[in-house]
Every structure is written in structure tokens, then in C-alpha cells.
Amino acid sequence: MLTLTHCLPPDPEAAIALTLSLTADDRTRSRHRFETEEGEEVHLKLPRGTVLSQGDRLTDDSGNIMVLVTAKPEPTLMVTANTPLDLLRAAYHLGNRHVPLEIKPDYLRLTVDPVLKTLVEQLGLTVQEETAPFHPEIGAYHAPHGH
After folding, report:
1. Number of helices and strands (H, E) in the chain?
2. Taking residues 107-127, what's their average pLDDT?
3. 32 and 81 belong to one structural domain
4. In this structure, are strands 66-71 and 6-8 parallel, antiparallel, or unpaired?
């Protein structure tokens, strides 16, 4: 089993040996066992508090093997609105509930939750269930993981 101990920033030139596709929740786990897309078992042993992002590269202590992190598609709710103010209002209400939220200029994305879906629909927004990579905002107090 490969133990991954270092996280490096994205580098399109890097030679990648393995790909590790992780959900948003999985990308917050600094110590966990996963299986790569190629079927190799890997163990994350990263500094506590590390949050991985799409395109990050992981390596072991030797630095000889490079593992690419990708965002695994997962069930989500995509929220759209007729006006930017409506979308902002929805982000405010969802933020008050401290749910992981992906914020883009023309949509919000969150994990599937029937109660939150109803809340957003009652605000007059459109909610569509879809399977997609989920990239929630990192908390304002989160320290970068050493990029």
C-alpha cells in the first residue's frame, strides 16, 4: 500500500502515475484509506486540516510517485435564479445553516437534502438534482495546505 504524505499544487506538466477521485467530503479527510481509479490502495497521511482540491498532486516521502486528485461526481442540487439578488438571498439562507456550498455567478450547488431543497424552492428558485463534481467554498478561517 502506498502512503501519501505530501500535497503539491496542480501542475499540468507533472507525470501522473495514479488518479484518486474523491467526493467533496473525502477531500477533507487527511488520514484515510482510499482506492485509486487504477485499483491501488493508498493511505492518506497528510497534515491535519488539509483540504484537497481538484488538480492537487499527492506524493509519498520519496517523491517518486505522483497521484492526481480529481473531484468525483456525486449527487447534488443545482440552484438557479431569475436574478442575482435571488441567488444571493438563497446563499444567505443556506449559509445560515452552515451547509457546504459551491458558489458561482449563475448557480449554487449543495449536497442533496430534501429540507434545503424545499427551502430554496419556497424562495422561488429552481432546483435541479444532478450528479456532478462538487467544489464547496473553503471556510474563511481555513489555512491553506501548503501550496
Report:
1. 2, 11
2. 97
3. no
4. unpaired
Q: Give the β-pairing of 107-111 and 102-104.
A: antiparallel
pTM to 2 decimal places? 0.86
Q: What pLDDT, on the 0 to 100 scale, is given for residue 145?
A: 46
Radius of gyration of the chain (CA): 17
Place of cell 457546504: 100
C-alpha cell belonging to residue 26: 473525502
Q: Average pLDDT over the chain, rounded to whole?
A: 92
How many residues in total does the chain contain?
147
Report how far apart, in Å, the C-alpha atoms of 121 and of each of 80, 86, 104 are.
10, 11, 18
Q: How far apart are CA 74 and CA 22, in angstroms?
A: 9
User: Considering Cα of 128, then 134, then 135, then 137, what sign does the dihedral take?
Assistant: positive
Is residue 142 assigned to a domain?
no
Q: Same domain for 46 and 85? A: no
Identify whether the C-beta of residue 80 lies closer than 8 Å to the C-beta of residue 107.
yes
95 band by pLDDT with thresholds 50, 70 and 90: very high
Q: Which domain holds residue 109?
A: 74-132
User: Which three three-digit cell numbers place residue 68?
Assistant: 492526481
User: What pLDDT does 146 receive?
Assistant: 43
